[in-house]
Amino acid sequence: MPWWEICIILFCVFIIFAIIHYKGKNKRPFKRALISMICGIVTLLAVNLTGSFTGVVLPVSLLSLMISVIGGIPGVTLMLALSLFF
Fold it and tell me: Over 2-49, what HEC string results?
């Protein structure tokens, strides 16, 4: 997948999150949308950094990054649950 397609997908996700936060009557919808996306990446990073202690590691790939950006903390939790079962 070319890098510009990834940028377009991330931009569309950002706009969708901003619209959701705007409809939810948040004062700063763009800031909240950016924080939601960053929380997913930080959670994926935290899982991989603590992997040596817990024994649970998620591979960092384009798919896992996109899931963590779009799904946030619930997306990373879902990937953790699926890695335990499969």
Answer: CHHHHHHHHHHHHHHHHHHHHHCCCCCHHHHHHHHHHHHHHHHHHHHH
- Cβ-in-10-Å burial (0-12, 13-18, 19+) of 43 comes to buried
pTM across the whole model:
0.82
Number of domain units in the chain: 1
Question: Do the beta carbons of residue 27 and residue 48 sit within 8 Å?
Answer: no
Tens digit of pLDDT at every position of the chain (86 positions): 789 998 998 899 999 988 988 999 888 989 988 998 999 999 999 999 999 899 888 999 999 999 999 999 999 999 999 998 88
Residue 57 C-alpha from the chain's centroid: 16
Instruction: Residue 43: give the domain boundaries.
Output: 3-85
